[in-house]
Q: What sequence folds into this?
């Protein structure tokens, strides 16, 4: 009987509130009004009125306080998932890739799991994300097929000319992408191994001269290295062109040196060939948004000539920056932190942007892991402060409002 009376009172309160909404702003007695406030909040939640529901749940105390906190967590998680997914879906087509779209799909699925009929049409957006993912996969497959065919043709042509190093440079990436790819009747992985082994055997021997047994007491087959000072004037000009990054002129001059400089010239010609191939590979993979592979290619070029044409060291750092940004927007905050920290240490340009996204990654990870690591929180604040002191503007940056609020409050 007593229970029936309580429910009757609550029902009467809801009717009165519906007739006069102003009553909702009036001070309420402790428990009975807390019950009513909780029911109002639940009603707003069910109607997808999240701002109103959030405000009311935050005011709930007493016996419903724990339930109210659970609703708040669900709404925050829902909105966070929708924002992350929307950030990816709003990118321009050339900035979307399969991995980021797959993450958007996961976020929409998470939102639907929390509230299937929630706001912002998650089911419709999920369907759109799946269509875009399928399109990107199809385009990537076509691009990969064309690249594999191109690399195969170049590897076969180089091997036919006995340019085994060049053949390995084309067949080995092909093997990494598709080990079983059939190229000229051979598997890519076997082609890579064969050309790599042949390239090791195909090294130019140092220039030598022989001496007569009668003058030295040694066999005529004794090998005596030519002194470096024997380089010709043509070689010196070629070396100067190489040092000044005029690779075309250097290549022409190295090919016309005298016999004494042939061996040293061959080494420089090999460096130029490997450098240009690595840099060209980095450029192509950068255009295909394959940032990790592009970074490795530019780093390979930088290992050959750090100050080479195109600034390979800076290009490698830029790829690492793009990789860090891509991982941030994919929700892989730990990997994003690692790559952005590396960018911060290399002295890459755009340091304010690097520190902003490094701080944003650290702060996002701090929130995701339950706000339990004070060191991570402090690191995030330090990096965000560096970005703000450098004048970094957040206009146009698609970042969580929680992170932007922290940044603006610094």
A:
């Amino acid at each position: 009987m007593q229970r029936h009376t309580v429910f009757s009172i609550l029902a009467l309160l809801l009717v009165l509130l519906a007739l006069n909404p102003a009553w909702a702003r009036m001070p309420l007695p402790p428990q009975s009004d807390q019950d009513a406030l909780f029911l109002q909040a639940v009603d707003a939640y069910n109607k997808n009125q999240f701002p109103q529901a959030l405000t009311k749940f935050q005011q709930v105390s007493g016996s419903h306080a724990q339930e109210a906190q659970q609703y708040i967590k669900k709404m925050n998680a829902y909105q966070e998932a929708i924002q992350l997914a929307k950030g990816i879906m709003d990118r321009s087509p050339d900035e979307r890739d399969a991995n980021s779209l797959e993450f958007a799909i996961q976020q929409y699925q998470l939102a639907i799991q929390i509230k299937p009929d929630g706001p912002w049409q998650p089911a419709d957006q999920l369907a759109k994300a799946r269509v875009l993912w399928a399109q990107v996969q199809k385009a990537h497959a076509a691009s990969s097929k064309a690249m594999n065919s191109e690399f195969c043709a170049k590897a076969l042509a180089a091997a036919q000319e006995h340019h085994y190093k060049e053949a390995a440079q084309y067949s080995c990436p092909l093997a990494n992408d598709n080990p079983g790819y059939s190229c000229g009747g051979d598997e890519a992985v076997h082609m890579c191994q064969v050309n790599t082994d042949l390239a090791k055997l195909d090294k130019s021997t140092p220039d030598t001269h022989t001496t007569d047994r009668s003058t030295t007491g040694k066999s005529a087959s004794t090998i005596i290295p030519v002194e470096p000072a024997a380089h010709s004037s043509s070689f010196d000009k070629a070396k100067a062109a190489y040092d000044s990054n005029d690779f075309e002129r250097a290549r022409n001059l190295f090919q016309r040196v005298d016999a004494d400089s042939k061996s040293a010239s061959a080494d420089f010609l090999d460096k130029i060939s490997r450098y240009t191939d690595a840099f060209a590979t980095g450029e192509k993979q950068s255009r295909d948004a394959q940032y990790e592979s592009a970074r490795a290619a530019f780093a390979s070029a930088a290992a050959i000539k750090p100050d080479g044409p195109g600034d390979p060291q800076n290009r490698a750092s830029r790829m690492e920056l793009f990789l860090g940004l891509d991982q941030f927007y994919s929700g892989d905050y730990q990997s994003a932190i690692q790559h952005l920290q590396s960018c911060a240490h290399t002295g890459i340009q755009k340091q304010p942007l690097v520190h902003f996204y490094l701080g944003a990654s650290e702060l996002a990870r701090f929130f995701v892991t339950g706000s339990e690591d004070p060191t991570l929180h402090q690191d995030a604040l330090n990096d965000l402060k560096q970005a703000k002191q450098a004048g970094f503007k957040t206009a146009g940056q698609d970042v969580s409002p929680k992170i932007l609020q922290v940044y603006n409050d610094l």
Remarks:
- Confidence is low (pLDDT under 50) at residues 203-232.
